[in-house]
Amino acid sequence: MQFYKPFIALTVLVLSLSFPVCADTWVDDFANELKATAKKKKLPGLAFVMVAPNQPTRFEFYGKTEKSGTLIDKETVFRLASVSKTFTAVFMAQQVKEKKLAWKNSLQELLPDYKFDNYIDTPILLQHLIGQSTGFIPNAYDNLIEANYKLPRVLEHLEKLDSLCKPGICYTYQNTFFGVLEEYYRQQKTTFADEITKSIIIPLKMPTASVGKNALMASKKWAKPHAAIDKNKWVSVRVKDNYYKYSPAAGINASAADMEIWLKAMLLEYPDIIDKNMIETLTKPRVKTKREMYRREWRKQLTDAHYGLGWRIYNVDDIEIIYHGGWVQGYRADVAFSPQLGVGYALLMNAESNSINKLTATFWKDQIEAHKIGLLADIKK
Questions:
Q1: Does position 34 have pLDDT exceeding 80, yes or no?
Q2: Which domain holds residue 368?
Q3: Is 1 within a domain?
Q4: Could you tell me the pLDDT band of residue 377, with boundaries at 50, 70 and 90?
């Protein structure tokens, strides 16, 4: 789930670099900054991973799963929080490709026993749910998720909401509405977890990715969540299951090794599973996200910002960065890639800290500057 609260601890960073000029230098500098930040903030741990088409994968790690835990490595599993929405979006695109669902399926069609459509002439569609443009007040009834209300009861509350705009017109970020997909698959006598696992996670051969709280805690090695009790002081907390009940919104778990594969898939290295048309559909700008333009660490770089289907689309110096972030208690995650540059990035943390915002923005600033240097070098040749 996407939030703008702090939290940190473990970091996975995955990138694909399409240019050789100065690449090693700036990436080394960024890796050093990453570790220096972790040390300064006294973070429990972090992991850095870099993949490039013609280069060996690079891994950097810092810290442990918890104070008395084991060292972080590429198979240490984290909660992805709202980065899960990128998995859900890809899964939905696959379901559409296989004609099991359609982007124009209304929520009413998916769950006939509920009524979500305030605009009869403009029903809320699957593409509105995945595209965060349902038209209802942002983060509607997240408080009920956090209060651990049962899913059917939350869906009943959603029926009573008043709309801010017609579906598809304005950006209205949600978590609770993803419960529609959770309930839809339950009524199909299966589960969202089972379906996305057999359709996405297993075909991509992700070694440690999973769905749900029990799966996280059953992992051979997983990063324990940490919350701040004072500035730069962290304490281990229990894993909450509330948002796990909305797994299409925030239920995926993954390691650096898994995210390496995920970013490669976004960069079309697994076309038999995730093809170009799917990615282009998901990353097409659909609703403008004005608030993103004022994010502290991004505002000097951003020239435009939209939401597509399960992904944010940032324009940074005429380079499109496809991005999503996530937060739940004790974890933070960022994932991004640029088809234009052939670059992918992910940063996973198991403590609550806003330093992830600066690190991600810095990475892309440095990445784009290095790209320009590479272009100039090519011209001089």
A1: yes
A2: 7-380
A3: no
A4: low
